Each structure stands twice: as C-alpha cells, then as structure tokens.
Amino acid sequence: MEIILSINAGSSSVKISVYKAEPSSSRPHQLAEATIEGLTAPPVKLKYSRGDETIKGNELQDIASQEDAFKYILTHLENDPGLPELSKTDDIHFTCHRVVHGGDYPATQIIDKETYHHIEELSDLAPLHNAPALSIVRAVSKMLPNAKNVAYFDSSFHATIPRHICTYPIDQKVAEKNKLRKYGFHGISYQFITDAVASHLKKDPKTLSIIALHLGSGASACCIKNGRSHDTSMGLTPLAGLPGATRSGSIDPSLIFHFTHSAGSLSHAAAGHMHITQAEEILNKKSGWKALTGTTDFGEISSSDEEMKTLAFDIFVDRITNYVAPYFAKLDGEVDALVFAGGIGERGSKLRKEVVRGVECLGFKLDAEKNEKPEDEVVVDISAADARFRTLICQTDEQLQMARGVLGDRQRLMQKKT
Ligand SMILES: Nc1ncnc2c1ncn2[C@@H]1O[C@H](COP(=O)(O)OP(=O)(O)O)[C@@H](O)[C@H]1O
Ligand SMILES: CC(=O)OP(=O)(O)O
Ligand SMILES: [Mg+2]
Asked: Residues in the active site (predicted)?
C-alpha cells in the first residue's frame, strides 16, 4: 500500500489530504483531510475529517504562515490514533505540492535541486504562493526524508492558450528575454473541473467546452474549449483579472504610480529570494476585499448590508460578468455549462444568483431552490428547467487531482532520483 500526502498551499489556507492506494492502482482512496484556513483573516481555524469524525472551526493560536500550518497538520495526522497508516511518517511515499507558478514547466516534476531553484526563481511572479509552497517542501525534506516530493503546477493547464491570447502587446525582445506572457493559474483545479463536469455530462473531456469560475481567496475565470484552456483571466502573475481577498485584480497599470511615488522601490516584505516592490505588495496584499471592507471573509461580505461590503460584492459580480460574456463569444455560443467552483463559487449562493442574473440574456438561468440548497455532490446542476444553457457547481479538489496524477505517473516518478 502506498500513502500519498497531497498539499495545497493557497494564499489564505493550507489543505492537506491523505490517500492510500494499492501498488498498481491508479485510484487514490482518501483517508483524511485537514484544512487550516484564515491565514489572511485570523482567527486561524482547523477543519479535519476522517471517516465519521469531523472537527470544524477549532481556533488555533500561533499559526501565521503556510509552513506553520503544514507542521501543525502533520503533527495532528501523526497523533490521530484513528489514522494508523500515518503513525510512522516513513510510511509516506509521495508528497504532492501545489506550486502556483511553474513558468514553462509541464504539469509535474520531481522536486530536485534544479526544480527547487527554478521554482524559487519564479517566486517574484507569484509572491503569495511559490515561496510558501517551497517553505513546505523544505519542511517535508527535513521531516519526511523518505518521501518523494512532486510539484504540480497551476500554470501548466494553460500551456494550450493560443499565442495571440497569451502574448502581451509590448516589445517582443524584452517579452522573450524576461518570459513576459500570460501564464494563467488555478490549472490543477480547472483540470479537475474539466474531468468532473465531462463525467457528469457523460461527455468525452476532449469535447467539453465550458466557462469555469474558480472563486476563492484568489479568483479566476477560464474559457475551456474542447477540454483545453483557451483563455483565462490571470496573467503573468495571479494578480491579473478578478479581484481577490487581498488582491486588486486588473486595474489601469498607471494607477499604482499615482497611488504611491515609491511604487518601484523594494517592499519591506522582500526577503531572501523574493524581490517584490511596494507596488506588488500593495496590489497583492493590501487591496481587494480586505482594503475595501476590512475582512477577507466573502461569506461575511455577502450577507452584510453595510455600504462597503455591498460595494465589494457588486464589484465582484461586475468583474466576473466581464469575463463570462466574452468567453461565451469565444466559444461561439457552444457552451456545455457555466461552472462555479472554489470556496466562494461553491458556497456563495447569493453571488451565483447575481452573476447568473447578469448573464441571463445569454441563456443562463438558475433554479432558485437548487441554488440556495445544492445537493452535496461533486457536480450539481442548479439551472432552471427552461434555461438554454446549464449552470453547475463543482466541488473542486486540487489535492485529489494531484494524487491521481501521481498514481498515473508513478512509474516515471519512481525512476527519477530526488
Ligand atoms: N458561505 C460562504 N459564502 C461565500 N464565500 C464563502 C463562504 N464560506 C467561505 N467563503 C469564502 O471562500 C474563500 C476561500 O476559498 P478557498 O477556495 O477555500 O480559498 P483558497 O484560495 O485559500 O484556496 C474565502 O474567501 C471565504 O471567505
Ligand atoms: C492562484 C491563486 O490565486 O491561488 P489561491 O486562490 O489558492 O490563492
Ligand atoms: Mg485555492
């Protein structure tokens, strides 16, 4: 039996799932799942589930980073008497790491010295993600020396975006030298969504065309044509496109020079291999819902009638609908579904209602009751009976997607030295 630890370091949370698999099987079987959330909005809380046991909302002290969260979860897993498979950490064969920016790397890589440094070099381009993921890789190397570390890149799914869509209209010599193009992120999630929705609709994923919305602390939209990414809202970095918990999303690039005169100087947060400027610090960490409302909890924002929270909610609806209509056109109106995923997409019924209302003229329409109380399935249809196009909710699972990937690619991965 093989044990896989699948680690998803998001900007506001760390989610870790534990799977077991028979040696020749490509199907991971989940044993437990732990999430620490609220890293950008304390109190930091633990959620844990194993079989029938569930812990929800335990408040934790002294957890300030993704690395702290990882260490806490690992200790929690080792000490759970109901999880004998993990009582010896030597039992862990693979650890999968979600790495947001992989540059031009294909989907998976064993993390050796070279990969590690490559990911480190890309840290400036995903300042909320790559460095925290690497801090967990380092902790794994120390604490689980027998495990093979595998990186899964959020950017790889978007390698199929056509050149005229991923090219920025700037001096191409500079663009090529500095690798400045649209990369796109949340790709592990979009791959999961593509497969899950295709299976729900009983279609070959290669023929599936959807508009997918991954709405979490970081939010993006993706136009998926025949199972492949055709366009997405994030860009060179995860800052572009939709606003997020602490991110501005797309703004006029000149704005920052009017916001602060020291936009180009190094931020105090620059450390080690991270060289981020004040502009990047402000737009990535001091903007978005936090700047507008003081909270990053979109559940709270959605249920409040305070002026700034209502404004934040309306901004999100507006920016999301700004992507749905053009993606609909890019798919020539041949759309299998509009899909909501991510913490806000899955749990935010009011947001779904307003977004779908905003694009109703295209033929999307919700069943109010199904939207309010969706069934607890991986994919749920919440469209009205007379809607021309389907609207779905997909409970995306980046950890499961990575575990499936590791098992599918096991032989190649086992051959490579760490
Ligand atoms: N009931 C709810 N309605 C709307 N948003 C919610 C609700 N519950 C949680 N959220 C939001 O989900 C987001 C977290 O999504 P998730 O995809 O788990 O984040 P991450 O980007 O860290 O992976 C947070 O912004 C949280 O406020
Ligand atoms: C890419 C990204 O923004 O990820 P997350 O939403 O997990 O922060
Ligand atoms: Mg996430």
From this structure: 154 (proton donor/acceptor)
User: Does 357 carry a binding-site annotation?
Assistant: no
Backbone angles phi, psi at 8, to 5 degrees: -120, 100
Atom of ligand 2 nearest to the CA of 13: 7
Detail the DSSP E strand segments found in 89-138.
Answer: 92-99, 108-110
- Asked if the ipTM is above 0.95, the reply is yes
Q: How far is the CA of 37 from the centre of ligand 1 (A)?
A: 9
**In 182-205, which positions are buried (b, 16+ CB within 10 angstroms) versus exposed (e)?**
bbbbbbbbbbbbbbbbbebbeeeb
Cβ of 10 less than 6 Å from ligand 2? yes
How is the chain split into domains, by residue range? Answer: 2-153, 203-394
Q: What is the pLDDT of residues 284-333, one digit of tens each?
A: 999 999 999 999 999 999 999 999 999 999 999 999 999 999 999 999 99
Instruction: Please write the tens of the pLDDT for every residue from 225-268.
Output: 999 999 999 999 999 999 999 999 999 999 999 999 888 888 87
Residues with CB under 5 A from ligand 3 (ion): 10, 216
- Domain 203-394 carries which CATH code? 3.30.420.40
CATH of the structural domain 2-153, one choice from 3.40.50.720, 3.40.50.1000, 3.30.420.40, 3.40.50.620 = 3.30.420.40
| Ligand nearest to C-alpha 351 | 1
